[in-house]
Amino acid sequence: MAAAKIISHEDPKEYWSLKDFDIGRLLGEGKFGKVYLAREKQSGYVVALKIIFKEKLDKYRYHSHLRREIEIQHSLSHPNVLRLFAWFHDETRIFLVLEYAAGHELYKLLKDLKYFSEQRAATYIASLARALAYCHEKHVIHRDIKPENLLLDMEGHLKIADFGWAVQSSSKRRTMCGTIDYLAPEMIENKEHDHAVDNWTLGVLCYEFLYGVPPFEEHDQNDTFRRIMKVDLNFPSTPRVSPEAKDLITKLLVKDSSKRLSLKKILEHPWIVKNADLEQHDSK
Ligand code: AMP
């Protein structure tokens, strides 16, 4: 497999440089730099090359974050987690050699479609539950799952990207992080939290996939906080959503983190079993 060459290097920094790649079109731009389509010259393997400017890292004091992001993402290998094959740097830039996700960005697709069908939503939730079960087994909590961090490959398989807020720890954590709408109550209260914060977020995402907006969205951040703390959950009459889907959401958006549905139980939930396209996550 062509990717094997990239994956097999134990210390990528020693082996790789920009000369190893043909650079193609700009795929997108983030806070710290640009992402280009690229081809590794020897194998012809197509990747996404993320170029991060060290100057910007200094400005936002993001060094330790990036180091953690690289270490975590590089250690993960799952069909629904975007692979980080290698990285290297020169004087001014850091280069991340990433799996190329040729499909849409999930948040753009959601914006275009307004909301997803139950089949599509269930397929994505099942993919996420599997990927998160894999991460949690490795003691990685993502803590920042949101549509903007999810990419799709050519066949429409979901890929978790961006491990900027992830943490590798088997003990409870206390850092406040993540995007407000997706924050679990224990994080808002700055209490200790564990992997169950990702299960809460799956409930928020499931709602957003089916209704087009996250469940606790308000103009004022304090109102969102208040609604999350009360688990002030309403299901609008349109679009029509099945009672089974609402049941799953209700069992994930539970204030007591120990009572949230486990990832295993999500995959066994009747709504997932009925609607998720299993080929979507078994085929790779
Ligand atoms: P980021 O800096 O990670 O926010 O990436 C900026 C943009 O580049 C994203 O919004 C995507 O459009 C694109 N992008 C990032 N990573 C990839 C990838 N692995 N494959 C395809 N496009 C990507």
TrEMBL record:
It comes from the Eukaryota. The keyword Metal-binding does not apply. It holds the Pfam family Pkinase. Residues 21-272 form the Protein kinase domain. There is a cross-link at residue 146 (Glycyl lysine isopeptide (Lys-Gly) (interchain with G-Cter in SUMO2)). Keywords: ATP-binding, Kinase, Nucleotide-binding, Serine/threonine-protein kinase, Transferase. The keyword Nucleotide-binding applies. ATP binds at residues 31, 50, 54, 99-101, 148-149, 162. The active site is at residue 144. Belongs to the protein kinase superfamily. Ser/Thr protein kinase family. Aurora subfamily. This is Aurora kinase. The lineage of its organism: Eukaryota, Viridiplantae, Streptophyta, Embryophyta, Tracheophyta.
